[in-house]
Amino acid sequence: MHIIEIQLDKTHPKCPPSISADVPYMFDLKWSTHSRLKDVVQKFKKHLEKLQAFWSTLDDIDRSLWVVDPKQASPSVSYRQINMGNDCFIMLSINAFDPRSLPECRFIGSGPIVNLLRNRWRRNGKRWIKDKQFLENLKCLLETQLPIPPDVQKNEQQVECGICYAQSLPIDEELRHKSGTGTDYTCDNTSCKRAFHSICLVDWLRSITTTRQYVKFLVSQLTSAGLCMNVALVVFCNIL
Questions:
Q1: Chain-centre distance of CA 52, in angstroms?
Q2: 93, 94, 153, 207: least surrounded by Cβ within 10 Å?
Q3: Model confidence band, residue 240 (pLDDT cutoffs 50, 70, 90)
Q4: Does the pLDDT at position 28 exceed 50?
Q5: CATH superfamily of 157-239
Q6: How would you label 79-90 residue by residue, b for 16+ Cβ within 10 Å and e otherwise?
Q7: Report for 32-41, 89-98, 158-167: range of highest mean pLDDT
Q8: Could you tell me the residue ranges of all domains in the chain?
Q9: How many angstroms separate the CA atoms of 90 and 141, rounded?
Q10: 97 with 51: CB under 8 angstroms?
Q11: Distance CA 200, CA 196 (A)
């Protein structure tokens, strides 16, 4: 529910009333001696309709990303501070007049991760497309997996890679679209069902110089390390 506060001057209705509300910006009030207060209310309702896209964008961010500030945002607040992990934060300021446009972005923190994301933002700024979803645009510019809220993380099963034992790959320029992503290959053998980063599997297999000459040796190496025969054969075929 939105509330508008209307204060009347002693000279009312000659002078326009003073209006305020918890919104990012107020509408222009055109007033004459023939204007009525119900006209102000109607204008306010239309103004709220215009702001729905702005609030919808912020709701998507609050629901889908790890927002650390503000904890309880009022309808007038247009920024969100997001925890990107590795002591890196981004401050997004959404344009209330044009919420689908490229937001202002401030990077907070120090170290290579912050510099990496800042450089990606500058390099990919022209790739922002208004017709795309806000979060999809954000992911495209930063070239990394966007962090979900902690409460969502607890409810989702986190799967570690059977090779590197990490849930997600590091944020690294060399990994390109794989940067920050989770496991993307799961063995379909019911007795295994282990998850892996496909890039970890490929790198490991390529590190074994005898794989192309001795398939049996490769399989024995993989199975002795805890991988099932199915994973060994499927991945081996994929890199040949």
A1: 20
A2: 207
A3: very low
A4: yes
A5: Zinc/RING finger domain, C3HC4 (zinc finger) (3.30.40.10)
A6: ebebbbbeebbb
A7: 89-98
A8: 4-50, 65-142, 157-239
A9: 13
A10: no
A11: 7
State how far the Cα of 210 lies from the Cα of 225, in Å rounded to an integer.
16
Which residues, 6 or more positions from 237, have their beta carbon under 8 angstroms from its beta carbon?
none
User: Which pLDDT band, with edges at 50, 70 and 90, does 155 fall under?
Assistant: very low
On whether the CB atoms of residues 95 and 80 are closer than 8 A, the answer is: no
SS (H, E, C) 158-225: CCCCCCCCCCECCCCHHHHHHCCCECCEECCCCCCCCEECHHHHHHHHHHCCCCCCCHHHHHHHHHHC
pLDDT digits (tens, 9 = 90+) for 37-65: 999 999 999 999 999 999 999 999 999 99
Q: How confident is the model at residue 105 (pLDDT cuts 50, 70, 90)?
A: very high
Outline where 65-148 has alpha helix (H). Answer: 112-124, 134-142
* Nearest partner of 224 among 202, 203, 206, 208, judged by Cα: 208
Which has the closest alpha carbon to 86: 200, 171, 178? 171
Q: How confident is the model at residue 200 (pLDDT cuts 50, 70, 90)?
A: confident
CATH label, 65-142, candidates 3.10.110.20, 3.40.50.2300, 3.40.710.10, 1.25.40.10: 3.10.110.20
What one-letter code names the amino acid at 203? D
